[in-house]
Amino acid sequence: MRYSGIRVIKEALSGHKGWGPLWRDPEPKPHYDFVIIGGGGHGLATAYYLAREFGESRIAVLERGWIGGGNVGRNTTIIRSNYLLDGNEPFYEFSLKLWEGLEQDFNYNAMVSQRGILNLVHTDAQRDAARRRGNAMILNGSDAELLDTEGVRKLYPFLNFDNARFPIKGGLLQRRGGTVRHDAVAWGYARGADQRGVDIIQNCEATGFKIEDGKCLGVETTRGFIGAGKVGVSVAGSSSRVMALAGMRLPMESHVLQAFVSEGLKPVLPGVITYGAGHFYCSQSDKGGLVFGGDIDGYNSYAQRGNLPVIEDVAEGGVSLIPALGRVRLLRAWGGIMDMSMDGSPIIDNTHIEGLSFNGGWCYGGFKATPAAGWCFAHLLKTGQPHETATAYRFDRFRRGYMIDEKGQGAQPNLH
Amino acid sequence: MIINHPLLGARDAQEFTYLGDASLIHRPDWQGEDPSGQFHDYLYLRDNPAGQHRELWFHEVGDRSWLVVTRNTLTHEITNVELARDVARREGRGK
Ligand SMILES: Cc1cc2nc3c(=O)[nH]c(=O)nc-3n(C[C@H](O)[C@H](O)[C@H](O)COP(=O)(O)OP(=O)(O)OC[C@H]3O[C@@H](n4cnc5c(N)ncnc54)[C@H](O)[C@@H]3O)c2cc1C
Asked: Could you read off the pLDDT of B37-72 as tens digits, one per residue?
């Protein structure tokens, strides 16, 4: 079924009885050409582009729980391509361009909203760094604008401009950045993949790999063995656990990141803002709630819930940037588990096991990457070669000394 | 989280900073076999288990001792806390 304005009117006149489920609930087949483990945004996008771009049809996505129950449904929905380094910026710009055409492409309303993202600066050094990053973005075909204090004041007059320690000196604005309805991304890709014949198999956990003579022949699951020509693993926070089933140790730690939503307010915050003097970022959802977050909790965790000190820290950052926040009530807080890599950048690569490839290490920034990660991982699975925008995302970059460390923090995942 | 410091008793985890897996105590020997391979594994690869995890915490705003904390990463429950110095000596480190 194609969605359109006419369809909505038709359904409205006939009591909305014609809407069907968005994807089937198939039994797993004994063998597929491509098996993707993990039904998050990345796994579903991979299956979608394998079918749509690369003409494949015998594809399955295996999801331990229900699709959208992982980080794709837990994140703060920010998309942007404001990176500095060569290994990153072309990839994220590719992703942002895919977001721009996504809803027409998969015929689903994902509420892609290019409302702009503003990174505030508070010192001369931060302004220099922002100018440099903005230039790197422009060199890579992206958009960036450096605002002065007055420019920021025009957009967000209610910020704490005259804070004695952290006055707002300006900000780096990417107008094409913004937010996307995160669940709808999972659902849209799932529907688009299903329509092209992909089997989305939920409640199906991968529990092992069948590896013979250095070749991966399929996946052991809670719903039996599933043979595969190629297996792609895309399980975000569970990366280390799943790859350990193939005997691999990854350059990663799993950490919890929390997010928060306030009570619904009238429109106050037109775009996305990030604080430069503390870790705090915020946008307003279309329902009116302020959606915000800050630092990861900082210790290894698989618990999908964080602790109070970080909640306090995020609230302090928020109130020091937007004093009016002090009057707003917090409605909900939750956590998601992220695969924090050793340099803060991801991996999309083949492993030493033939037929087994990996996509992960997305840290807290993989939502914006969803379309390009899916595309590039599909490219890798189909051709065996990395996509041109993802050539730096290799396993061996740590051995070779080619880290992609945007923050310059070194091999300390909780600092990225 | 509350960390039961062996010398100071129950302390709020906020007083500590976190380094990571306690295997970081065992820095490879730069004169040993394949030192660059050993240092690669030491620096970059982690077991990252879901369950019991032995990890290094530094009592930064307290007595500045290093601790080895055994904590369940699925529940955040802490079951054992030792001075890292004692652990390192027991596991064969000279100093
Ligand atoms: C609080 C929070 C805020 C964030 N904010 C942003 C943001 O603003 N912008 C941004 O770009 N990124 C953000 N991120 C990061 C982003 O959400 C993730 O990097 C991204 O969603 C990860 O890819 P995914 O969607 O495929 O992951 P997931 O949705 O987690 O998908 C992985 C799936 O694999 C499944 N799985 C695991 N093990 C198995 C198994 N053995 N067998 C079968 N299936 C398995 C899981 O159940 C899960 O559904 C945020 C993350 C969090 C937690």
From this structure: 999 999 999 999 999 999 999 999 999 999 999 999
Q: Say whether pLDDT at A75 is over 90.
A: yes
DSSP reduced 3-state for A178: strand
Rounded to the nearest angstrom, the distance between the alpha carbon of A40 and the centre of ligand 1 is 6
How far CA A60 is from CA of A69, A169, A195, A200, A230, in Å, comes to: 18, 51, 13, 6, 11
Residue nearest to atom 52 of ligand 1 (CA): A75
Q: Which of A300, A345, A395, A414 to mutate to test the interface with B (most CBs of B within 10 A)?
A: A300
Question: What's the rounded Cα separation, in Å, for the pair A53 and A58?
Answer: 14
Q: Give me ligand 1 centre to Cα A163, in Å.
A: 36
The domain limits of chain B are 2-90
Is B83 exposed, middle or buried (CB count within 10 Å of its CB: 0-12, 13-18, 19+)? middle
Query: Cα B57 to chain center, whole Å?
Result: 6
Q: Which domains are assigned to chain A?
A: 23-78+84-93+100-105+182-251+343-415 (3.50.50.60), 112-178+253-340 (3.30.9.10)
> What is the CATH code for B2-90?
3.30.2270.10
ipTM: 0.96
CA separation for the pair A330, A158 (Å, rounded): 19
Residue B94, pLDDT > 80, answer no
What tokens does A260 get?
Answer: 């928060």
* Whether A389 contacts A278, CB under 8 Å: no
Confidence of residue B2 (pLDDT cuts 50, 70, 90): very high
The rounded distance, in Å, linking the Cα atoms of A317 and A311 is 10
8 Å CB contact between A38 and A63: yes
- Tokens for A402? 């080619």
What does the alpha-carbon distance between residue B15 and residue B7 come to, in Å, rounded to a whole number?
15
Tell me the pLDDT tens digit for each residue of A30-55.
999 999 999 999 999 999 999 999 99
Check pocket membership of A37 for ligand 1, CB cut-off 6 A.
yes
Could you give the dihedral angle defined by the CA atoms of residues A51, A54, A55 and A61, in that order, rounded to the nearest 10 degrees? Answer: -30
